[in-house]
Design brief:
The protein has 122 residues and is of the alpha+beta class. Helices cover 54% and strands 19% of the residues. The protein is built from four helices and four strands; from the N terminus they run H-H-E-E-H-E-H-E. The chain has a two-stranded antiparallel sheet with strand order 1-2. Strands 3-4 form a two-stranded parallel ribbon. Helix 1 crosses helix 2. The chain is globular, with a radius of gyration of 14 Å. It starts with a helix and ends with a strand.
């Protein structure tokens, strides 16, 4: 949230460095079997294979906590809105999976940002 403020106030090099540090922090916080990817702009996805909804909640709460600590140390005015989706069965359309997670994230932003919206799909 508010990533544009970093670019506007500190330049794109600072924004790029921030994005890299966020990606590294997420990668360091999840398991080696998980996958962190940048979707574009300031949006990232974390794939947590073989992870149920309760475990995903725990992981994402930890990720958000670590990211907020990291950002506070760097004194950037950003927070993290997270949309989380757990599929109880294999889903065949990755684009739809990303869309559903993105939709959940926008619910967080509409509520005031810096939170996590969890959803489960059968």
């Amino acid at each position: 949230d508010e990533f544009k403020r970093v670019n506007d106030a500190n330049g794109h090099a600072a924004g790029d460095a921030l994005l890299k540090s966020v990606a590294q922090m997420m990668t360091n916080t999840v398991r080696s079997t998980d996958f962190v990817a940048r979707l574009g702009g300031d949006e990232f996805a974390i794939l947590l294979p073989d992870t149920n909804a309760q475990a995903a909640k725990s992981v994402l709460s930890k990720v958000q906590e670590k990211l907020l600590q990291h950002i506070q140390e760097q004194k950037y005015p950003v927070t993290f809105s997270i949309g989380a989706v757990t599929f109880t069965q294999m889903h065949k359309n990755p684009s739809e999976m990303i869309y559903l997670a993105d939709e959940a994230m926008y619910c967080v932003k509409q509520r005031g940002k810096n939170g996590i919206e969890y959803r489960v799909y059968d």
